[in-house]
From TrEMBL, chain A:
Organism whose genome encodes this protein: Glycomyces paridis
The protein's name in its UniProt record: Glucose-6-phosphate 1-dehydrogenase
Function: Catalyzes the oxidation of glucose 6-phosphate to 6-phosphogluconolactone.
KW Chaperone (keyword) present: no
Homology family: Belongs to the glucose-6-phosphate dehydrogenase family.
Pathway listed: Carbohydrate degradation; pentose phosphate pathway; D-ribulose 5-phosphate from D-glucose 6-phosphate (oxidative stage): step 1/3
TrEMBL record, chain B:
Glucose-6-phosphate dehydrogenase assembly protein OpcA N-terminal domain boundaries: 51-160
UniProt organism field: Glycomyces paridis
Origin: domain of life: Bacteria
Glucose-6-phosphate dehydrogenase assembly protein OpcA C-terminal domain sequence ranges: 164-301
UniProt-listed Pfam families: OpcA_G6PD_assem, OpcA_G6PD_C
Species classification: Bacteria, Bacillati, Actinomycetota, Actinomycetes, Glycomycetales
Descriptive protein name: Glucose-6-phosphate dehydrogenase
Amino acid sequence: MSDAPATHVNPLRDPADRRLPRIPEPCALVIFGVTGDLAKKKLIPAIYDLANRGLLPASFVIVGFARRDWGDETFEEMSREAAKAHARTPWREEVWARLAGNFKFVQGAFDDDAAFDRLDATVDDLRITHGIVGNAAMYFSIPPLAFPTVLKQLKRTGMSDNRQDGGGWRRVVVEKPFGEDRASASELNELVDQVFTAPDVFRIDHYLGKETVQNIFALRFANAMFEPIWNSNYVDHVQITMAEDVGIGTRAGFYDDNGAARDVLQNHVLQLLAIAAMEQPNGFEAEEIRTEKLKVLRAIKLHDDLEATAIRGQYTDGWVQGRPVKGYLAEDNIPQTSTTETYAAVQIGIQNRRWNGVPFYLRTGKRLPKRVTEIAVVFKEAPHMPFADYDTTTLGNNQLVIRVQPDEGITVKFGSKVPGTGMELRDISMGFGYGETFTESSPEAYERLILDVLLGDKTLFPDAQEVDASWAVIDPLEEYWESTKPEPYESGTWGPAGADLMLQSSGRRWRRA
Amino acid sequence: MHLKDTTTGDIMKALDGLLHEVGGGTSGLALNLVALTTEDEREEVEKAASFAAQEHPYRLILAIPRDLEATEPRIDAEVTVGDRLGSAEAIILRLDGPAAKHLTSIVLPMLASDVPVVTWWLLDPVRYGLEHELRSFADRRITYSARAADPVASLARRAESYVPGDTDICWTRISLWRSLIASAFDGVTQSVEKIVIKADDDDPSAQLMAAWLDTRLGVSPEVVDTEVERNSEHLPAIASVAFTMVGGETMEVERKTDGTTVLRQAGLPKRRQTLQGRTLGQLLAEELRHIEPDTAYRHVLDAFKDHYASDRAAA
């Protein structure tokens, strides 16, 4: 028996009433580093989109914190421009009018005690002036180096404490990278979890906010026809690709310190793998899903022969999308001697009964021919085919491809007879697409994730243990790569030859994504 | 593509031809939408349908009874894909004479196989003796009782003959209002003693609002008949909803004509929201998001029915 008082249930909320959207309680969103690109291109527009869909509470305030010398009005005006330029839903003045007057700006540096005292007072004042009842989410849109300083300030001012006297919750949102190896991640996790409490920490992996990624749960666990073949009896291997056509852009400093494996493999790709390979959770609660994801991540094993199964590449000059582009070493602020990889392809295994003996090939890279993210499950050949060899020469393995972006959807590839008098067989594909116009109405990843933070729903956020388990996969790779040089590949091609060899050695090949 | 005096077989051939040309197929269809309308309302229905098709790829079958006096049955059809009607595959039928009465036999072979069928009518199907026909093959039926000559009586008739899958745009259009009220109740722990709704008594939406609050809060609201000026047709004619709690505290949501909506709650500063009417297309899109029967609506409709019956008995 529990002594805790029964939580009050709003009588107007009925789980069967599917039309009432989930709307967060009155609250403030405090954004650190609000003048940065992420805030301008993603966060502020996502807030406008949420308002446009009627998903924000009546009392909602956006508090910006940055070094720039802005007032509330300037901040509001800049936010308006950002929302207008980058929002996905149509622009409507009246929607903005409802947000207007709810922008506060606090100027200061991260080591400035007085500025944080002002911020604390500002958020406290909103309790009375804007009825936010003390609820606040703090979004860290800042370089990871600044995390400790800001966290210490939040602890010092007490801003990070949940108000026990019914005075509201405090949550924190952190963006990747979560450290640069297992040790630093654990240090960072400890610090964040200690300043806030672990359930109040939301780590954003924006891939998990995508509709298609959430649809993997539906595909696997709501259907009868896929799960029976989703194992080593029928699956030959799995390929997870996250390709980008862009280069490193303006992220030279950060990128050169980290590289493709730390930047993408550790988080997005391993999260996709976890969702594609996990066992069925007991339920759809955050904790139940996390349990299964964690089991899979901890069952990952690298191949013994890293030389053949952990390939790094670095792009050289070439042509992408019909334009000449510079090689990595010629990019601004990249040292000539850099051995940072812009491409990584790794073969891993998952040590459990379901996936025993099934290789998972993971690859990610920049300056590849196009931007595409997909999970391809490649099935074994039919045990016996009653056709002549020459009839099936062009027949490949059956595939089920989950296209995460762009062109979200699912493709199934299977053999079919070519019309004619002979028995010639060829692969054809059957597709399900979310549709091009459909995307306008489905929420953008950041929209969904910000809403979930404000609602306190952690289903789509990896926790500290998952981050730790992911680094446990990456650390040995980085250690091995320490003494090697990445293989050059021409911009606009599908990566270094070593990656192709990795699959060819077992008679497989990369799917042309 | 226009087909004069045609048959369903030819219409489907034309649709297949068009789909083949654009390289599409029926594999991505989410549902069939069968809409019954008149020539006068056609444009409005088409506009709404093409908007909703962005969210729900569907095959639209628009049936327009034309010359009902004609003795010879005749079907004229227009078939379009990805054209005037957005991304929907659309068949527009104009039906003369006995053809209009046999809508089922015309529509059944045109439905995309094995995806749900939703019927939607803005006009009164009783007038054409089509209500039963439309019910026979639909998984969901959308009506708009506010458009009927006597809106509340029309909704009451729908309540009497309710079958799972029925729904009404008058319910859809109070979703935003309901959501605003529900979020105001987050964190409120006192029980409600009294509810006063200022609304147009003849608006089915206001009646549904009262019935909803009654079912959820156990307090029967008093509806004060008020003339409500609206800046959009698809808004409920509700001006304000006021609650008095057991402890005497009050909470009120009031909407002004321009859409400014104020939430006054004891102990909290006044909060403003904007509550605008949605387009028919947006309302239709919300409706199509739910293919399973709306049980919440059913409870509310039952409460409305009882209330309506006792009102009639009293009068």
